Every structure is written in C-alpha cells, then in structure tokens.
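re: the backbone from monday

yeah here it is again, tokenized this time
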C-alpha cells in the first residue's frame, strides 16, 4: 500500500506538469489557448489572429492590386486626343458622265463615275472633369469636338470631236450645279463637318473582384453642322460670257437625350497595365433643318432660288472603345494614360447635301433623292487623366 500511494502521487504530479506544458504552447487544431494557466473564453478574440480579408484586401494579393484599390474620393479630370476619320454611308461630291463614239459600229457609249467627298484622319480634342466620393458615387462633365473641311476640284478641257463630258453636283433641296465641256469647265466642291458633344453624367465606381467598373448615366447635348458647296465655271459657248452656277447648302441638327455607358478595367498582374473597354449609347431628340440656295449667272442674267426643310428627328448614337491603360500612383493621386481603338455610329445623321444623285439613260440627272444616311467615325484615342 505504501508503495502504491507513492506511485499514484507521482503519476498525478506528472499529469499536472504535462497539462501546464500543453497549455503554454500555441493553439493547434482549434485547441483553446491559455495565458498564465487560464483558458481564454470563446467569446474573446484570440490574440494575434489574422482578420478576415475584405474584397479589396483579397485583390491586394499581388495579382491585381492596383486595379482593386479605389482609394479616397476626390476630383477626377483629364484630356484626350482622338485621331479619327469620318465615314459616310452616302456623301457624293459630283457625278461625271463621259460620252465617246466607241460603241458597236461607232455608236455613242456613256460611262458615268461617281466621286464621293474625301475625308481624312483628323484630330479631335476631349476634356472631362468631375468628382467621385469614397463610396464610388460621383458626377462628371465631358466635352468632345470634331471639325473638318474638304475641297475637291474637277477640270475639263474643251471637248474634242466625238467626246463629251457632263458633270453634275450632288442635289441639295432639289438644286444641282452642272456643266459640260463645250468650253473648258471646272467644278469645285467644298464641305464642312462639325460636331460638338456635351455629356453630364452621374457615375458609380464598382469593384467586382479584380474588375473595376464605372457605370454612368445622364444627359447628352449634341450639335451637328454640315455644309456642302458646289461652284461651276464654264459652258458658255463664248469665253467673254462664262456661265457660273453655284449651290450652297447648310444642314444641322441639335438634340438632347439620355446617355448611358459602362467602362471596364482589368489589371494585368503588377505591371501597372490594364485592359480597358467602353460601351456608350445615347438617344437624341431634337430638330434638324436644311437651307439651300441655287445661283445661276449666264447670258447676261442672274437667277437665285432657295429652299428649306425643317423637321423633328430622333438620332441614336453608339460608341465602342477597346484598348490598354497604364496607371501609376503619385503621392495621394493616381495618374493614368490610355490608348484605345474607337468607333462611333450616328444613325441617320445625313450628309452635307442630304442628296443622292440619280441616273437617267446612263447619264446623271440634275434631280435626285433625299437621303438621311449614317455617319461613322473610326480611329484611335490617346488619353491622360488624374484622380486626386
């Protein structure tokens, strides 16, 4: 009995010492830790335990950190240069009809060629300024402007036996300038395209994992102005009294309507680069008008005729951009640059003359039909912006 009591006392002492040693170790597999021999209640936080990461914290894992940290609120602004070219579905400058005695058996053969107004790449500026809060809600105003003028000239020498050339301008309100080459003749066509756009938008920055989305909605105010002028000098029969024919046309649209857009950015690792995309749509409600004047001088007299057209219009607009962005933090601000391929479509915007020449027995007719065709833009945008 005496020896058994000694062994029991030793076993109890060993068990107590083992419990103290395990209590002093860090928690393993969910075991409740102890501090100075006292267990910490389950309702209290475990000292040194990591916090559950937020969405932004989860993005700041080295894979997409710069695209997931919106930062504090503040002013946003920037500028852009578009290098774009306008494309018209229908925008004729003039038609040329050449007749020669080269048909079967020496009969007359007529070939008609249509020449459209030629446009080229040009620069269009854009500016924007706004404010965005810590919660991603804000507002901004955007302005975009494009203007381009063109000039094309077609000249003909006096006709030779067996050949004849007839040239007619695009019809504007039913007026056309035309001439042939009985004597040396020249037709010059000038045009102008001017477009100014204002967007006033509410904006909301949304973070979805590593995707940064900017949803916008508001009002768009747009003014579209186009001009078409045709000048003819020739076809008199006598050089002392040349015939001059002129057609002057102005076509404009002003409209207001809703505009919505969605911008997206997806960072590429920690490089500072992001994929960038934008889709924007607007519906403009407004009025359009066209004024045209026909001036004919020849045979000692001058005749002037005018015409006009006023109408209500609904003009849908669509825009798409795809490109890359590079951003860099500078103090408490973020500076970024973008390069994107841009495309725009203005459905039913019409051309400067709004006319489509027609043919009669293979030759151009001085009459024509009215067409409000589509206008598009294609090019590249270069942007530089800052978020303060």
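seq for it, each position gets an aa:
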């Amino acid at each position: 009995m005496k020896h058994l009591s000694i062994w029991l006392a030793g076993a109890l002492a060993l068990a107590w010492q083992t419990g103290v040693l395990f209590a002093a170790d860090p928690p393993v597999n969910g075991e409740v830790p102890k501090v100075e021999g006292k267990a910490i209640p389950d309702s209290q936080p475990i000292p040194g335990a990591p916090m559950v990461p937020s969405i932004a914290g989860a993005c700041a894992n080295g894979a997409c950190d710069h695209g997931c940290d919106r930062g504090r609120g503040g002013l946003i602004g920037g500028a852009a240069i578009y290098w774009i070219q306008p494309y018209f579905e229908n925008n004729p400058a003039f038609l040329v009809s050449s007749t020669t005695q080269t048909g079967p058996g020496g009969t007359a053969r007529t070939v008609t060629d249509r020449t459209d107004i030629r446009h080229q790449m040009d620069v269009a500026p854009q500016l924007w300024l706004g404010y965005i809060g810590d919660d991603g809600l804000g507002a901004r105003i955007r302005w975009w402007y494009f203007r381009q003028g063109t000039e094309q000239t077609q000249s003909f020498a006096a006709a030779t036996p067996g050949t004849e050339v007839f040239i007619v301008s695009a019809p504007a309100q039913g007026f056309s300038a035309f001439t042939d080459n009985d004597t040396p003749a020249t037709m010059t066509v000038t045009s102008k395209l001017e477009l100014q756009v204002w967007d006033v938008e509410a904006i909301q920055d949304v973070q979805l994992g590593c995707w940064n989305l900017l949803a916008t909605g508001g009002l768009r105010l747009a003014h579209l102005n186009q001009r078409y002028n045709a000048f003819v000098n020739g076809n008199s029969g006598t050089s002392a009294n040349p015939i001059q024919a002129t057609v002057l046309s102005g076509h404009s649209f002003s409209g207001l309507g809703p505009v919505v857009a969605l911008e997206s950015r997806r960072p590429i690792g920690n490089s500072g680069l992001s994929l960038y995309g934008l889709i924007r749509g607007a519906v403009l409600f407004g009025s359009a008008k066209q004024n045209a004047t026909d001036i004919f001088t020849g045979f000692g007299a001058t005749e002037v005729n005018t015409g006009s057209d006023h109408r209500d219009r609904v003009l849908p607009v669509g825009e798409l951009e795809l490109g890359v962005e590079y951003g860099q933090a500078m103090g408490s601000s973020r500076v970024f640059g973008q390069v994107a391929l841009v495309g725009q479509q203005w459905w039913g915007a019409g051309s400067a003359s709004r006319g489509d020449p027609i043919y009669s027995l293979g030759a151009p007719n001085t009459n024509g039909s009215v067409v409000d065709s589509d206008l598009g833009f294609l090019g590249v945008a270069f942007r530089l912006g800052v978020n303060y």
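Helices lie at 2-24, 55-59, 65-68. Residues 20 and 284 are 79 Å apart (CA to CA).
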